[in-house]
Amino acid sequence: MSTWSNDELRRIAEADDLHISPFREDGKTYGTPTWIWSVAVGDALYVRAYNGRNSRWYQAALRQKAGRITAARMTKEVSFEPVEGPINARVDEAYRAKYRSSPYLAPMIGARARAATVKVVPRETRTFTEEKQP
Fold first, then answer.
1. Strand 34-35 and strand 117-122: pairing?
2. Fewer CB within 10 Å: N-end or C-end of the chain?
3. Predicted model pTM
């Protein structure tokens, strides 16, 4: 499994411009980019769906388990992993710290959005190089 470099995670965590694009049903075409909030907790990146589990991007992320994000002038192929349990308290704290002055904070740490927490993991992509024939 891949992990974020310290620099990548720091840049994404500091940015307020994350767009998420889970794959469409064909598993190849990216969905329409959706602007969402993101936070870093430890060495991981987390996002939540404002509209909870009914959110289209969230449903696509669970079905397809992969897509890409664009943030901090980077585009990364990623995997999506739903999370629950004690990590949510730490994600709440990260949201409070990053978005403390936003009127949208309360819904993002509320039960609806909390139930739609996703860990975003960088995905290794294969690159093919052409080998020269003798």
1. unpaired
2. C
3. 0.90
Q: What is the pLDDT of residues 38-74, one digit of tens each?
A: 999 999 999 999 999 999 999 999 999 999 999 999 9
Please, are residues 22 and 64 in contact by the beta-carbon 8 Å criterion?
Answer: yes
Task: Look at the block and give the residue holding tokens 């080998």.
Answer: 131
| CA nearest neighbour of 40 among 116, 85, 97 | 97
Q: Give one DSSP letter per residue of the chain, joined into a string.
A: -----HHHHHHHHH-S--EEEEB-TTSSSBPPPEE--EEEETTEEEEE-TTGGG-HHHHHHHHH-EEEEEETTEEEEEEEEE--STHHHHHHHHHHHHHTT-TTHHHHTSHHHHTTEEEEEE-------PPPP-
Domains, the chain, ranges and CATH?
A: 6-122 (2.30.110.10)
